[in-house]
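2-deoxy-D-gluconate 3-dehydrogenase, pasting as requested.
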Amino acid sequence: MLQLDASPVTGRRGSVINFASLLTFQGGLTVPAYAASKGAVGQLTKSFANEWTARGVTVNAVAPGYIETDMNTALLNDPERLASISARIPAGRWGSPEDFKGTAVYLASKASAYVSGHVLVVDGGWMGR
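Structure tokens follow.
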């Protein structure tokens, strides 16, 4: 088995960053398979963290809220659904891919050396409601 030394930059051997979703925590509408798969990502993150953290590898996940991407074109083009979703986001806007740069850097950096098994929600405040 390959043995890796801890990085002098991060203080650990590695960082795994999975991408979950708000549907890791909520059932969603009309997307049961997607919600189930994202719930699985959350549990997989925790399970791997339980096994790998002691070996110097942190395992975390990012759970995005509603993000303006091609995946959400149907929602963005449905005026009623867009209004209902947007009204619930305290930040007053949908997220963009740019909103994840700092989160990913944090989870891969030395600053998060003691963070493992966490699903970090980046959602403009959606889950706080």
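Note for the archive: The chain has a mean pLDDT of 93.
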